[in-house]
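stage 2 :: seqdesign
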């Protein structure tokens, strides 16, 4: 039986981390495996803060979507070593990664839509999932923490310079147009102002290069 601890150790040199997992139930939306069976276990992989970033930059290639391509190159061999199938968030048909992540660990949807972690705040991301045909031993427990958004006055909703986050949802058009306009380069250079307003792990921001990479990808530069 695959050990979660061994899997997490194998992922660690990439700068990414195992982010929990769950035993697949009858109502969980999962794709079938290559042999036609439903997975028994899903383990989520992500990044936290900037640990992954220098490793990616050192191995980056000149190719479309370099971060996605690098993630696949790094994680697929690990999945194969452990007898799992790898799924990337950008692979079609798209899989419900946010739902999976909430099954795998204690994360919740924040007021601005990103998943918030009790200690990592908004400074983490989902990079893939390993689908196992059999159970995985030693999955971390869930339900042991409370959402940090409970009792928070939600500064993330009042910080955006174009009020892109409202009760009606996220106005991504206004957000992107504002960032592209260069009217105030702070979002482009240091990252989304709403995301940075979250008080959880306020010291765990992505570094400047990581911020610029993601914001430039967001606006299509």
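stage 2 :: out
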């Amino acid at each position: 039986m695959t050990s979660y601890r061994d899997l997490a150790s194998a992922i660690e040199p990439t700068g990414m981390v195992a982010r929990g997992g769950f035993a697949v139930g009858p109502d969980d939306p999962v794709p079938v495996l290559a042999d036609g069976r439903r997975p028994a276990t899903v383990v989520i992989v992500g990044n936290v803060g900037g640990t992954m970033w220098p490793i990616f930059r050192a191995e980056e290639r000149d190719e479309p979507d370099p971060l996605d391509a690098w993630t696949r190159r790094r994680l697929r061999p690990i999945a194969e070593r452990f007898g799992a199938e790898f799924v990337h968030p950008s692979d079609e048909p798209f899989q419900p990664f946010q739902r999976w992540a909430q099954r795998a660990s204690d994360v919740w949807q924040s007021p601005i839509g990103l998943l918030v972690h009790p200690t990592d705040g908004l400074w983490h991301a989902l990079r893939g999932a390993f689908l196992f045909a059999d159970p995985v031993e030693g999955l971390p427990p869930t339900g042991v923490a409370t959402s940090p958004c409970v009792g928070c006055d939600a500064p993330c909703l009042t910080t955006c310079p174009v009020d892109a986050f409202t009760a009606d949802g996220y106005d991504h058009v206004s957000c992107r147009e504002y960032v592209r306009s260069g009217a105030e380069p702070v979002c482009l250079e240091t990252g989304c102002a709403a995301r940075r307003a979250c008080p959880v792990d306020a010291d765990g921001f992505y570094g400047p290069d990581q911020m610029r990479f993601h914001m430039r990808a967001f606006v299509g530069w």
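stage 3 :: structure notes
- Strands lie at 2-3, 17-23, 41-48, 85-87, 108-109, 115-116, 124-132, 136-137, 165-166, 169-170.
- The chain has eight helices and ten strands.
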